[in-house]
Design goal:
This is Methyltransferase. Keywords: Methyltransferase, Transferase. One of its GO terms (biological process) is methylation. One of its GO terms (molecular function) is methyltransferase activity. By secondary structure, the chain is of the alpha/beta class. It has one domain: Rossmann fold (3-Layer(aba) Sandwich), CATH 3.40.50.150. It is built from 9 helices and 7 strands. The protein has a 7-stranded mixed β-sheet with strand order 3-2-1-4-5-7-6. Helix 6 links the parallel strand 2 and strand 3. The mean pLDDT is about 95. Bound molecules: S-adenosylmethionine.
Length: about 210
């Protein structure tokens, strides 16, 4: 068992993919109730709604799908089929129990996604581009599995966006790899949240693969 208690504070302090695997193995069973419901987590809802409002359609890849909260909202909005990818088999196990995903793909995004190129018409991600998790260096791996014109809706923690240079990474991708970039700032948690992160925000980056 990890020495770190599975909570937001521990998640933000992670330093490696192995750290992530360890923490989420412990957190998987309690994540929906002990974190998302308790903290009035909203980011998956904002991300799924932004994807649909932008005209996003399946097949969709949910990146860092975790226990499947974003996929569940997407599915409720009539989007499908949806595949889940995540580094944590325990989180994916919880996601598959929701009975909304077509397939679960266990993978470390830093090493690429083991599916054929141009497999998806849409890519969503909520809560995975954040402190201690993933930076802009994995965006090319996401673009590889997307078709021409595929709609992306990726949440990026606002502080992490600044700290990890997402603005310049996205500017580079705008030179021929992505189009129609829009950034929308949203609150990660709802009015029932308490604690030091209750007012944190994220950008939803909406763009299409060129
Ligand atoms: C905060 S959770 C978000 C889960 C879900 N999308 C949500 O909004 O509730 C972050 C997820 O990113 C996954 N993750 C972290 N590092 C990863 C990596 N290198 N490759 C793939 N997934 C990773 C974790 O296992 C975890 O399920």
């Amino acid at each position: 068992m990890s020495a770190k208690k599975p909570d937001l504070h521990a998640a933000y302090a992670l330093e490696s993919p192995d750290d992530n695997k360890r923490l989420y193995a412990e957190w998987a069973g309690d994540y929906d109730e002990g974190f998302a419901a308790l903290e009035d987590y909203q980011l998956h809802i904002h991300t799924a709604r932004a994807f649909v409002a932008a005209g996003g359609q399946g097949p969709v890849l949910d990146v860092g799908a975790g226990t499947g909260l974003c996929g569940a909202v997407l599915s409720g909005l009539g989007v499908g089929p949806i595949d889940a990818t995540d580094i944590s088999s325990e989180m994916l196990h919880e996601a598959m129990r929701k009975d909304i995903y077509r397939d679960a793909i266990e993978a470390d995004l830093n090493e690429g996604i083991p599916v054929p190129r141009e497999s998806y018409s849409g890519v969503v991600s909520s809560g995975t581009f954040t402190h201690g998790h993933l930076g802009p260096e994995v965006l090319p791996a996401l673009l590889r599995v997307a078709r021409h014109g595929a709609q992306f809706a990726l949440s990026i923690n606002s502080q992490h966006y600044e700290a990890k240079g997402f603005a310049s990474a996205l500017r580079e991708l705008e030179k021929g790899k992505i189009e129609n970039l829009q950034l929308k700032e949203v609150r990660i948690y709802g009015d029932l949240a308490a604690g030091p992160n209750k007012d944190d925000t994220a950008y939803i980056a909406l763009f299409e693969k060129a």
